Please model this.
Amino acid sequence: MFKGINLKYVDVREGQVRLDYDSTRAASYATERTSLKIYNLNIQHETRPHITTDSIDLQLKGVSFYTPDSMYKLTIDEFALNRKDIVFSHAVFAPTDKNHQAKALSFTAPHLRLNNFSLEDLIMSRLRADEAILESPQIKFYTNNRSRKSVDSTLDVSSLYETLNGVSELIQVHRFDITKGRVEYLPLARVREKAVIANINAKILLNQLLRSDSLVNIKQSILQLDIDRIGVVLPKLALQIGDLRINGLTGVTFINSLDADLGENIHLRGQQLAWRNLDWDAFQQENNIVADSIYIKQLAIDLGRTATRNKKKAMPVIRLRKARLEQLSFDGVIAANTQLQFDVRHLYVDALSSQNQYLLWDRARGNISNIRFREKMQASPPGS
Model:
């Protein structure tokens, strides 16, 4: 046996490429007549990887890759190999007919690029590379019509993780980049709910994301996330966010504009909001706000003209090392027939915290003005 083989140039004309998943199945893919050129092909038994090359010139059409459990399929109209990169054209990732999960995720993309891919893994029908770039994907969360289970309209995080694991089984990469993406959340047709995230650019450490056991770790695995627009319509929430930026390395999140209707007459409008090192687990599980610092340039709180009838609840836990609020306007009914209005400018607070119904702080300075307190008089009954 040879210890190694080196071929400077290989030229195959009108050949056929055949891909097999294992010896027990028929060929999963076979090309029509195609040409193949390989430059500086090295096959070495004693080194890893065993197979290397400087460049491959190959174009294939109609290729499909399946996850080991055959629950998801990646279909490619065409793919071309060029040096150390693979470019897939018109990629579609979706559940197969065997997948009966109640909720599913799919995406389509005009291009999927794998940089510095492994030729040896490709020959074994595996996609392994240093980096994947998904260009202009259309990503959808939706109810799986093949599911035999009754489903609700909530977004199941476990289903999302199962899908991401399916992606990682198909495409094994260290970093996964998304450029100019769009996400749509489409629950049951009878439910008037929808979420759209437009123009996403992200850099994600995919393996670290899938190993994360907390929201903090998940955020750290997202090196960068830029979103131009988020629109959400739910029974008790209408939300519009413009220009969201997340940096997982520094822990800073920035929102340029915020408009939210939280139900029960609560309306928030904000401009240029930022926070550092927010405890996402505490926020998601208990609605508690624990962070290093928060900055808000402008915030308007409108509680409507009708007092809520909810029983008084304890304030959520708040722990902030620093809070800075440049401009705040408050307007709302705080009790039956009682309306309060005021403005705040240049508010700076150190060590802000909460206890029951009270806010506590070490030091605070700012300007409060235009305080208006109105109490409507009820009409006396006739004959009194």
User: Anything to note?
Assistant: Confidence is low (pLDDT under 50) at residues 23-30, 150-155. DSSP finds five helices and 22 strands in the chain. The chain has two domains: 59-237, 250-384. Residues 59-237 form one domain.
